[in-house]
Fold this protein.
Amino acid sequence: MVTKLDSRSSDADAPNPHLKEDELCNLVGEKEISVSNSDESFENLEVILACPSLKRNEIRKIWKNLILICLAFVGNFIAFNGASALQSSLNAEAGLVSASLSVIYAAIIISAMFLPAYVIDWLGCKWTIVVAICGYVTYYLANFYPHWGTLIPSSIILGLSAAPLWSAKCTYLTTSAKRYALLTNDITDAVVNRFFGVFFLFFQSSLIIGNLLSSFVLSADNTEKLEFPTCYNETLIEQICGKNDCQGKLSTANVKYNSSDCSIIELESSGASNSAIYILMGIYTASGLCGALISAVGVDNIKVRSQETRGPFALLIASFNQMKDKRQLLLIPITMYSGFEMAFLTGDFTRSFVTCPLGVNWVGFVFFCYGACDAIFSPLVGVLEKFTGRIFLLTAAALISIGAIITMQVWTPYPSQVPLFFILSALWGISDAVWQTQLNALYGVLFFTNQEASFANYRLWESVGFVVAFAYQNFICLSTKLWVLLSVVFIGMTLYYYVEVRIFIER
């Protein structure tokens, strides 16, 4: 970024607009205007635009910072996505999984209301990301010995770290996109969409890497686990898997291979040895620490606009004031749905449609398909939005989600129906690519002058969706959860359409 020229200097020292470009750049160099050493975000833009070399350097730095932030998040979420996807399958102690996940998102709600602005103001976007990722690492360490005394405290730390992490990322990307648009004379909305698309391309790749790691590590002690099941008990799958999963113990699924043609193969409920789990969590811990290191060493800090600097209680008030905006209120249900759909995928789909009929070692492979589609479509969505508009994309995502939900209501997940396991996962990944990129971009564009409060609201209501979904996870059958998902997406999209109508009328 650019250091502001000393306002105390005389007019004679100021750059003369009639100077040639090379003379102006030399004068800028004499004034030691340094792109790399400054926290200023929008200062001296006219000087940079007048000097092509500085402009090119500034654009390169914006892209460098974007890519490094993406890599930092990849390192962290390789670990988090991999660990959270396995919670319902590896940690079998009664109530521990849903309790720890609920605590995470309950803590995020508290964090979203109080912490982001205070932490960002105190540490800056860059160091907020570094410290928050270290908070995530405590959760990976706790999974070496998953117990109420380890997972719950680490879940609290992770939850408190999450809102500052995501708010810092969203603020950094939106501010950088605004500056990039000014430098390139591009449309701000388009650049915001492009930057979020690039981010989620990298971010969703963490699902691919993290879950492939889990599948190969958990299958390393027995390569036969990599073979798709050919013998299974149809009656048992019909009774306890898929939509009929009512949160009974999956230990009964150990006899899923028991049929007239196959002998009983006794399996542990997790299907994984302690040594394999320790190796996996060690990899996840190292990956998270690498993410923090990348951000600490490589990312430049930026200065957030002064009107965005608030104390924690001021942010809480601003967040509630933000809800006076009718557009914010109308977006709450669809924002909550993004929490519902991710909670369903990590907490219910993996258990009921993968672990139950196939085994825990197949969770990673099925998630690989989800992550690959999510990663591929995230940048494409940003490009398509310029031609189709966000209404079309969000409508398509809603229709895909509805189709997948209805399919899960009528499908019994027999292992012989191999394609459906991966097709459903892929469809969920495509729709999630739209939800994540377009909802983030929508908040950034609609509430650009009130970023911290708006993104705090985004994290708040998304987290409420997570908390509600995990809160009822152990008490209702999967079929009922699917009806809840269907209802939320329908209500959310109806209200979202109303927001778009209001925007159109106001224009």
